[in-house]
Amino acid sequence: MSLLLDVAYMLGLLGAGTAARWLGLLTTERTDVLTAFAFYLALPALIFSSTATKSLESVFSPALVFGFLFVLCAVAAVGWVVHRRASSPATRSVAVVQSYHTNLGFLGLPIVAMTFGDLVTAKASLLLGVGALVQTPVTVLVLTFLNDADASLRSELRGVVTNPVLAALVVGLVCSATGFVPPAAVLSGASTVGSLALPAALLSVGASLSFDADDVDPSIVTSVVALKVLVMPLVALVAFSLLAVDDAGVKAGTVMLAMPTAISTFVYADQLGGDTRLASTTVFTSTVVSLGVVLVLVQFFG
Question: Is this model's pTM higher than 0.85 or not?
Fold first, then answer.
């Protein structure tokens, strides 16, 4: 029953964010402030508080990181093949990117933190950092290559390196490696701020979702969503099991990769010549479908 209540809570926050936008309560400026709070404060606080008190050996797993990267690359390759006959480069580029580019930060980590214990959250924080380093450069490369668009990979990489999520992860892992235990007040404050990551992120995501399915091929939306929230976690579960990843790592990796397509893919599509209608429709659809998949996975993991 608690799992159903958790999903109802998440859907309620998403719906509240969307309703607040329609009612004019969450304007673009207010949504930006909420997003900034989640990105610059709540998520880094959650990452730091979950990793700083764990040993490095318990958090870092080469097999987990390798499996995570393998799944990202494998699904990206499948998406490239499946959507090779899309009607236009703009459509194909978005379909490929949205097949693998996962909402690890605004949905993945907060949901893992709400559902599982501290160790699973710490491993999910590690995967969020790895994903931040990999997903954005690959997405920019795919969009610029297929759309023959102009983009400064250097500036994108600079944005990745200065990501506050990565900074918080590095600080947390340094504490893990050295055995330094931050003051109780610091950990308590970080934990309190980090607990606001999920509601802030869900309200922000809900306010940013839009559904514009006019002239969008439903078969492409279906295939993208199927790859993202059905095939990807299934491949992850198999890969992590074959690599003998520990139980906490399997939970963290599988649930994180079951998250929907990241909203940032719409932004990149808009900037780099992608099909923005397909992007917005797929983000909306995958977000709704993924919550059901997460419920199933949480029940599966017990």
Answer: yes
